[in-house]
Specification:
The structure holds 2 protein chains of 2 kinds. Chain A is mainly α. Helix content of chain A is 80%, strand content 0%. In chain A, helix 2 runs antiparallel to helix 3. The longest helix of chain A has 31 residues. Chain B has a two-stranded antiparallel ribbon. In chain B, helix 5 packs antiparallel against helix 10 and helix 16 runs parallel beside helix 17. Chain B is elongated. Chain B starts with 10 loop residues before the first helix and ends with a helix. Classes of the chains: A mainly alpha, B mainly alpha.
Chain lengths: 98, 701
Amino acid sequence: MLLGPSLAVSAVLFALGVAGVLLRRNAIVIFMCVELMLNAVNLTFVALAQQLGVAGQIFVFFVMAVAAAEAGVGLAIILAIYRHRHTVNLQNINLLKG
Amino acid sequence: MPAPPLSLLWVVPALPLVGFVVNGTLALTRPTAKRAVSIVGVGTLVLAFVAAALAVAELARQHPAAPLVFRYWEWIPAGDLQVAFALQLDQLAAVMILVVTGVGALIHVFSVGYMHEDPGYARYFAYLNLFVFFMLILVLGANFPVMFVGWEGVGLCSYLLIGFWFNEQVNADAGKKAFIVNRIGDFGFLVAMFLIFRRFGTLDFETVFAKAPAALMPGGAVVTAITLFLFLGCTGKSAQIPLYIWLPDAMQGPTPVSALIHAATMVTAGVYLVARCGVLFALSPLGSAVVAGIGALTALFAATIALKQWDIKRVLAYSTVSQLGYMFVGVGTGAYAAGMFHLVTHAFFKALLFLGSGSVIHAVHHAYHATHTHEDAQDMRNMGGLARYMPWTAALMWIATLAIAGIPPFAGFFSKDEILGAAFAESAVRPLWYAFWAMGLAAALLTAFYMTRLMLYTFHGPNRTGEREREHLHEAPPIMTGPLVVLGVLTVLGGALNVPELFGGNAFLEHWLEPVTSLAHRLQPAVEVAHATEWALVAGAVLVAALGIVGAFRLLKPEALVPARLAPPDTGLARLLWKKWYVDELYDAVIVRPVMWLSREVLVPARLAPPDTGLARLLWKKWYVDELYDAVIVRPVMWLSRDVLWKIVDARLVDGLLVNGTAAASRALGWLGSRLQTGEVGVYVVLFVIGVLAVVGAVVR
């Protein structure tokens, strides 16, 4: 039941997330795109759980928990960067240049 | 190997060696540390004497029939030739180590006073300690090569100490003379060793002497050659005719050195060698006759020279040569105990005489030094009447003089009498010994005469030192008179060591040496003489000695002497004796000058010589073999090494390509890698995504 469309939406969402991470410069936006990818994966898990058993649904909770933790840490890092450099534009942040 | 404590025998020679190392280091680093040098130099000798005494006490307790041999390590293991570094202690070596360390210690003490002002103080003690070390190796060696090490070592130290004040040409020349003359003797020693090895296949004393009676035909050519070559070594080391000429010149060294090396110990090494090899000499009648004959001749010959010398040390030097001759008469006769006995007593009284003369020279030199006069401090014509200023030295030297003259009951009387008695007894079997005995007796007369002369001119009559110098004359300090007193006591009592049965004694030394000499005595039994004859001989010897002393008192007039600078030259026989029978001049004319002439006159100096031609040039150029090798081998190898291996292979290939190439490659790779690190997160993400896509693509397909 609606497996195909679910997976398609999930793929589109994931691709959007990847594109956002690749193309955008604002750290907040990139961060949101990462969340988007995580949720795209969640959607895939839920959709496939219909056929492959409940494990996929349980996995979604783990991903959510991890995503929440990641959001906390990630936002804290972004805030710290902003305080330092008064910008969150990643193009200006290249201290690790080889 | 026998149990300790005797296996610790090596400690005895090791102690002076330690002294040498420490003093040598001090001499090189801080030569002014005289206090430390004295403590080390004298201390090691005293300790060595204590160690030697302990070893001898233990030996006396065991009194073994065979020598105690201690093999420490294999020294020369070469095919058939197996030489161990081994020391051996027997009754003969025991006598020697006691004399060497005992008299040596006394002379070291004396040297502290005598050499105190010398800038080379530390060097002096280093050499002296080294000498004692080598001397102990010489007497303790258990085979010929180890003994030879000591033999050469004492020669080296003798050279170093004769030329101790090498700033003056004459001293350095005297050292060289001693060294070169000794080399001739050492040649004899070496040849004897070769012969022994060829015949016996070993050089260990014990084996050689045990095998000798069976392996050598008595009186055969081999044993005669061995003994004669050995004795050639002895004539060098112990200053016998014809190689005695170095010893009088050796008096250029410091006086304590003359006492220790050139009177008491080193020069007796030849006597020790003959006694040690007694078995071989007993097997060779000719060899032993040569030993006794040369000894008797030297005893008489040197005594005549001593009659007319003015230098106090030269008189004593010729006296030493003469007394060594006596010892050789003893050991050549087969009376090894008598020879060794005279060696011991001679070590006492001659060391005393030399140290006493050192004390005299010290005083006279001091007096001349104080008044800045340049006179000869050793010429007896500049002395006279010194008994008033140095009573101790005079009294002690009189004791030694009576001992050397053979007046009872001093030590020299017993030992000299025993040698003459043995020679006379031997003449019953071999008539030639009558001549040796007569020469010995004549030498005894001369000995008594020239020693009394020395005493009269030095200590009695008017003083000829000079008016101003007289008040600077004084007795030596206690550190110098102390050893003199000890030696004086030994000179008085030394005869007790071997009082013959004739006087109710027990001939202690003779019995003590029996384990060593028994084999030789079995081959060549001693001849006994009646007691009446012995009494007559003793009486005759004492009479002769007394005659010599009284004659000197009657004939000589110390009052008539004038100081050396005013003295007219001697004439006639006196001049002949003063010039030492012109032996040095004879050697100079017969040997030295022809050699010099050959090298100087017959050959043209190199800068004037015309170039050779033809075959001569071919030979002079050594058949051009060197040039051939140069062209065929040396140059190609040089070219290959320099032009190919170095410039191409090493510099370009190894250094350039391999070493530097690797470094350059890794640097380029690193540069490429570092380009990827832009520091921009976006770029990393792009790469990351590409990577994920590639992995996913690979998995899906």
